[in-house]
Amino acid sequence: MEKSTDTHVIGSSETLTDDPTRQQNLDPEPPSNPAKRYLVFPPLPSEDPGPPPDGGTTAWLQVLAGHLMCFITWGLITSFGVFQSYYETLLHEGPSTVSWIGTIQIFILLLVGTVSGRASDAGLVHEAVFGGTCLIVLGIFMTSLSTQYYQLLLSQGICVGLGMGILYMPGLSIPASYFKDKKPLAVAIIASGAGSGGLVYPAMVQQLLPRVGFGWSLRYMGFVTLVVAIAINLLLRMRVPARKSGSLADWEAFTEAPYGHTFGAFTPTDSINILLVTNGLGIPGRILPGYIASKWCGPLNTAIPTATLVAILLFCWIGVGDSHSGVYAFAAIYGLVASAIQSLFAVSLAALTDDSSKLGTRMGMVFSVVAFASLTGSPIAGALIQAGDGTYLGAQLWAASSMLLGAAALTVARIGRTGFVLRAKT
């Protein structure tokens, strides 16, 4: 009997092995989502996640990633003033020639926005962020080795600027997709990263440059940037499925009156100490209006009076004169108010885009247009100063008038969005 039982068991095992159907059932099933096996970057969402969560741990971690992104992009850009006088001495060049390094950096950052924004919508977020952060870090370390003008232009102007442009749009559009009602506050916190970086980098250079020299000052900045870049790559996660099809630019956006009128500009102060004051007060200046817009008014309703107030301040700048205390007081007030329009500009763009899958593309398109304003704004101001025999009256009137026109454009955008409804939150 035992022998028969053993034979039955062995026979059953042989039958199980020889049956192709049953053998297939025993094999491990292939993973349902092949993207999970992609070891370098996190998997991309494949289904519509529904409405934005408007909060939660993951959402606020994206805000942190966006804040750090602004830290190593606009934070570095607003710190360029600390290098201006050093480069003039090192290169024996005039301020206009040296300023082209920073100007080209800003121009490339904004110009690349259309491409990087579309890449973000197409699901190449992690590739763009990784490539952008690598170029920024590489450019900073190569700047530390530069001694000639063309070397600084290539490393700090072009290489760092290109990395910033590739990184900026994904780092701004992805966190914004996690929020709806709290989007103005979230984007304002992200934009305040420019103030954080604008404090840290100039302070590092001021303290390190006399002690360790130019090369190692830049290398220490590079190491800080590397740590921040690693954190950004680890934190950022896409929420909306990729939009694979579609053109590079969403040309229909410019046919929408609210979207087509969201442009503005202002002139920054070019002094190291005043830069620190301006950037320091720019942190609360970016966050507070975002909270007000999120809680009560809406981004456009907040941006219009803010831009008008900045224009008034720029007109008042004419009366400050050469007073030491007056310039510092103006820098403090201007830093608090003008930084608000920087964050509200991005918030307003996000609020005017109803389809989250096109957010990166549309924001990139607008910033690409703004790139040409950034490229021409400083030379125009410089020409006005030169025409005025060194006085700033012409440049001050130019800056104030430009901002006032920007406030008018925002008003047109608001009317195009809601009509002549006074109490509409938008």
Question: What characteristics describe this protein?
Answer:
about 425 residues; mainly alpha; about 0% strand; disordered N terminus; single chain; globular
Please provide a written account of the structure.
- The chain has 426 residues and is mainly alpha-helical.
- It is 73% helix and 0% strand.
- It has 17 helices and no strands.
- The chain has helices at 2-18, 20-26, 57-72, 74-77, 81-91, 95-111, 113-121, 125-143, 149-176, 183-191, 193-235, 257-260, 272-297, 299-316, 324-351, 359-387, 393-418.
- Helix 3 (57-72) runs antiparallel to helix 9, helix 6 runs parallel beside helix 9 (149-176) and helix 9 packs across helix 16 (359-387).
- It is globular.
- The poorly predicted ranges are 1-18, 20-39, 253-271
In total, how many beta strands?
A: 0
User: What fraction, in percent, of the residue positions are helical?
Assistant: over 70%
Dominant shape? globular
